[in-house]
Amino acid sequence: MINGAHVIVYSRDAEADRAFLRDVLEWPHVDAGGGWLIFRLPPAEVAVHPADGPSHELYLMCSDLAATMEQLAARGVEFTAPVSEARWGRTTALRLPGGGEVGLYEPRHPTAHGG
To answer: I need a labelling partner for 58 at 20 to 30 A (CA). Which of 9, 25, 35, 84 fits?
Structure first.
């Protein structure tokens, strides 16, 4: 029935953010036409948290937050939040070239995607 998910990241500079995903994160992609890149995501999962109203967040997952931050920093990535330690994992956030932020997350719980 459902065979995938399509995540949309809105950006003030979509071309710069596409280049970031292509060149810095090195994600495989297809060109849907005219340079409109669509990226293959790593395995993913969805969690539903209680809230007062609709809201969505995007977190990229990694198995070693410190090592991933070191690799990304060497590629010029700016981190916008200190590492936060929680019972369920470690998080930070990184700046996209278009001005947005994306979370980066090392889970300390079983993952649904098996990674």
So the answer is: 35
Tell me the C-alpha to C-alpha distance, in Å, between residue 98 and each of 13, 20, 50, 55: 4, 9, 29, 20
CATH of the domain at 22: 3.10.180.10
Q: How far apart are CA 41 and CA 9, in angstroms?
A: 13
> d(Cα 71, Cα 52) in Å, to the nearest integer?
37
Residue 108 CB burial class (10 angstroms; 0-12, 13-18, ≥19): exposed
Q: Which pTM does this prediction carry?
A: 0.86
pLDDT at 115 over 70: no
User: Is pLDDT of 5 > 90?
Assistant: no
Alpha carbons 25 and 13: distance in angstroms, whole number: 17
Q: Phi then psi for 91, rounded to 5 degrees?
A: -135, 160
Read off the pLDDT of residues 72-90 as tens digits, 9 standing for 90 and up: 999 999 999 999 998 889 9
